[in-house]
Amino acid sequence: MPASSRPTAHLIDGSLYVFRAWHSMPDEFHDAEGHPVNAVHGYTRFLCELLEREKPSHLAVAFDASLTTSFRNAIYPHYKANRELPPPDLERQFVQCRAVTEALGVRVMIDHTYEADDLIGSALWSLRGHGFRSVIVSADKDFGQLLGEHDEQWDFARNTRWGPAGVYERLGVRPEQVADFLALCGDAVDNIPGVPGVGAKTAAALLAHFGSLDDLLDRVEEVAFLRIRGAASCAAKLREHAESARLYRRLTRIALDAPVEASAEALVRQRSGDKIESLSEQLRFGPLTRNRLRALCSAQD
Predict the structure, then answer these.
(1) What CATH code is carried by the domain that includes residue 231?
(2) Residue 12: is its pLDDT beyond 70?
(3) HEC profile for the chain?
(4) Residue 207 above 90 pLDDT?
(5) Do residues 238 and 260 share a domain?
(6) Which of 206, 241, 263, 289 is the 20 to 30 Å CA partner of 109?
């Protein structure tokens, strides 16, 4: 079935867009109790624009609630240890952003063991079994590993989209190699060190030759004979850090077994609008935002 004839589900990395709004919106918006809501206002504008432009029938927004409680923290305590916890004002706004999402009839996915990436990956995997193609709304490079033949990733802020071929253009590896690639060269954002001395270009070259991390480590003696800079040193580092590399891949690989609703019907948008008025009053949305929210909650597109 060609991509154009497949039903489409939009899976949104909600936390990314809350953080972006937090950093980009001026601190001049306050709710009825006087608390800052700049991130809520920015996130709401983003979600309204997406719904207006795409008119998606099936969608979900995933939020992170596992910065210190993810299963990855149990595997590797240093995972994301470089990140500061959100301040109370932002934590409050995350709750409000989830409320806005639900008020618009959009499915919210959140878990204290699995991250947003895992929830999106598990939903995509389930939807693929129902004949859906997925559009992952995020700029995060980790999602490249999820893209199948008909899927897309969409960086909403830059309005750029790419499929599996775009992953290769950006990282130099195929989607199925992304987790291995990040395990080798590391991911500073998530505090994953990678193999010392192996950068992105070397990691891509190694995977181009060996195909996977497992085959690379099984045939590590061949690395010294490759035409890559510092081949002998690289081979020694890979031998020394082989088990660490395998551990890092457990961190970089997106889980596909997170507890998400398996049916496509669970992602159908429900538009009742019962909570929009009271929520708009509480968050002190302006007339333009209120009208957009009302229109999006009406029965007509």
Answers:
(1) 1.10.150.20
(2) yes
(3) CCHHHCCEEEEEEHHHHHHHHHHHCCCCCECCCCCECHHHHHHHHHHHHHHHHHCCCEEEEEEECCCCCCHHHHHCCCCCCCCCCCCHHHHHHHHHHHHHHHHCCCEEEEECCCCHHHHHHHHHHHHHHCCCEEEEECCCHHHHHHCCCCCEEEECCCCEEECHHHHHHHHCCCHHHHHHHHHHHCEHHHCECCCCCCCHHHHHHHHHHHCCHHHHHHCHHHHHHCCCCCHHHHHHHHHHCHHHHHHHHHHHCCCCCCCCCCCHHHHECCCCCCCHHHHHHHHCCCHHHHHHHHHHHCCCC
(4) yes
(5) no
(6) 289
